[in-house]
Write a structure and sequence with these properties.
alpha+beta; four-stranded antiparallel β-sheet; 8 helices
């Protein structure tokens, strides 16, 4: 297995390789979005892994923008707090790294699920699984613009930020905002997808 292929399965997020893969920069090919501070006064609610309490969410920041639609399935209602989102996002990140793909997909918003079906998502990740047991730390939650919630985390020491929204009583993950390159990648033919990710079971 090549170094690039191993890196592809270890640190890729949501099955995505950023555009830097095509330029051959394997050492940085697993970046999604660099952490963005969004530290405007009154808009930050940060949670630490050490167990610091998280404040309850206020109103939506920068109102006027409609958040993405929730997924069709709506299980139990999530508390609209930073502490609850930290727990939910940590579970999703761990599930993703451990290849629990159905659980991950169920937390996507409707716009993200429209990009790729559940069955196709699971099939592609079965072809190109992550390397499990890589250290994942989900350590911070902050309010973002227009009602967004930003989740800060790291995989194998590299830091990332995901975008979430609270819609109809659930926190849902926004794939296009968290990793825009995923949209194009998931529309690739299966063989192109496998080649881009760098795993070995094409076809």
């Amino acid at each position: 297995m090549s170094t690039q292929s191993e890196a592809a399965r270890t640190a890729r997020r949501r099955g995505v390789r950023p555009p830097t893969w095509r330029s051959g920069q394997a050492g940085h090919a697993r970046r999604l979005l660099r952490m963005r501070p969004f530290l405007a006064a009154g808009l930050v609610a940060t949670c630490g892994l050490a167990g610091a309490a998280c404040g309850q969410a206020g109103g939506q920041a920068g109102g006027g923008t409609t958040p993405p639609a929730a997924s069709a399935a709506s299980p139990s209602r999530d508390p609209e707090t930073a502490k609850a989102l930290l727990r939910i996002a940590a579970a999703l990140n761990n599930d993703y790294q451990e290849n629990k793909d159905t659980a991950v997909y169920s937390r996507w918003d409707a716009r993200s699920q429209a990009i790729i079906s559940r069955a196709t998502y699971v099939q592609r990740h079965h072809q190109c699984p992550n390397t499990p047991h890589v250290k994942v730390d989900t350590w911070g939650v902050a309010h973002g613009p227009a009602g967004a919630w930003l989740v800060h985390y790291s995989i194998g020491g590299q830091q990332f930020t995901d975008w979430w929204y609270y819609v109809h009583g659930r926190f849902v993950f926004d794939l296009p905002k968290s990793n825009p390159s995923a949209v194009a990648l998931y529309k690739d033919a299966p063989a192109q997808y496998v080649k881009a990710i760098g795993c070995g079971n094409g076809g």
